[in-house]
């Protein structure tokens, strides 16, 4: 390697010693670098002159990359009637700078399942896990379990996501939204209700995309005699008990008459 206008490499390293310590590391070596005074001159080993002509670099290996796991939500608290199956979303993220590997278990809980139960997440990405709660055969009351997430995160292994389930026998006329709107949940975009003293300024709402985040949805029960604003993605029929409601694509206002 040369500098334009010069016939010799740069820089020149001289073997200087101060306080018993050689300032060139590694020390000057023979047979490693040569120079000549002109284009026609003979090449000379610069070690003869106690120096080397070269460009050197020191390579220092940095800390190995590490994954950094995140989960959202950090817990589940759900209320469901008996004999109901409901899915929720758990997101596993990786904010580190190496691939994250994970394995999920729930202690063989009979009413809880996860899919997938293992995988990997590249740095800066996330994976979606479907959490399914099945209340078939469960008696009314409260249940609890834990979703354990083992990973190669060096300081957050394992992570635990608590799951609390309230099994409630519903009043048929005043069912949970999940039960009352079961026939249209795959087309439901959002629903609103109003009752003075409830929710925010009397308004309560339900967005299916927020179902995995406890506390965001405030419209959880449908009450006989109340009106509800429902937005669906396409025309469909809402059926509950002996009653049905013909819905247009977009917004609809219905009066809930129960079972």
Question: Could you provide a short overview of the structure?
Answer:
This protein is mostly beta strands and 259 residues long.
Question: What are its keywords?
Answer:
mainly beta; four-stranded antiparallel sheet; 259 residues; single chain; 1 helix; five-stranded mixed sheet; Immunoglobulin-like
Please give a structural write-up.
The chain has 259 residues and is an all-beta fold. It has three domains: 12-53, no CATH class; 69-167, Immunoglobulin-like; 177-255, no CATH class. The protein is built from one helix and 21 strands. It has one helix at 177-180, and strands spanning 12-14, 17-18, 21-22, 34-35, 44-45, 51-53, 69-72, 76-80, 85-94, 100-105, 112-115, 118-121, 126-134, 141-151, 159-167, 188-194, 203-206, 227-232, 236-240, 243-247, 250-255. The strands form seven sheets. Strands 8-15-14-10-12 form a five-stranded mixed beta sheet, with no helix packed on it. The protein has a four-stranded antiparallel beta sheet with strand order 7-9-13-11, with no helix packed on it. A hairpin with an 8-residue loop joins β4 (34-35) and β5 (44-45). The protein starts with 11 loop residues before the first strand and ends with a strand.
């Amino acid at each position: 390697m040369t500098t334009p206008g010069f016939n010799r490499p740069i820089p020149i390293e001289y073997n200087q010693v101060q306080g018993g310590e050689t300032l060139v590391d590694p020390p000057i070596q023979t047979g490693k670098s040569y120079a000549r005074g002109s284009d026609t001159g003979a090449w000379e080993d610069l070690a003869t002159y106690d120096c080397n002509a070269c460009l050197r670099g020191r390579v220092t290996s940095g800390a190995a990359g590490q994954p950094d796991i995140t989960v959202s939500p950090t817990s589940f608290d759900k209320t469901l009637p008996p004999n109901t199956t409901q899915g929720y979303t758990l997101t596993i993220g990786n904010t580190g700078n190496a691939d994250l590997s994970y394995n999920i278990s729930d202690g063989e809980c009979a009413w809880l399942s996860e899919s997938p139960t293992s995988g990997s997440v590249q740095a800066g990405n996330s994976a979606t896990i479907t959490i399914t709660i099945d209340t078939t055969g469960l008696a009314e009351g409260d249940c609890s379990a834990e979703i354990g997430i083992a990973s190669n995160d060096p300081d957050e292994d394992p992570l635990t996501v608590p799951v609390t389930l309230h099994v409630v026998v519903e009043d048929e006329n005043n069912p949970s939204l999940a039960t009352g709107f079961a026939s249209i949940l795959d087309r439901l975009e959002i629903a609103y209700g109003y009752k003075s003293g409830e929710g925010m300024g009397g308004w309560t709402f339900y967005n299916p995309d927020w179902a995995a985040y406890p506390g965001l949805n405030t419209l959880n029960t449908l009450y006989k005699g109340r009106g509800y604003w429902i937005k669906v993605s396409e025309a469909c029929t809402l059926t509950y008990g002996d009653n049905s409601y013909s819905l247009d694509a977009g917004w609809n206002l219905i009066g809930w008459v129960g079972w």
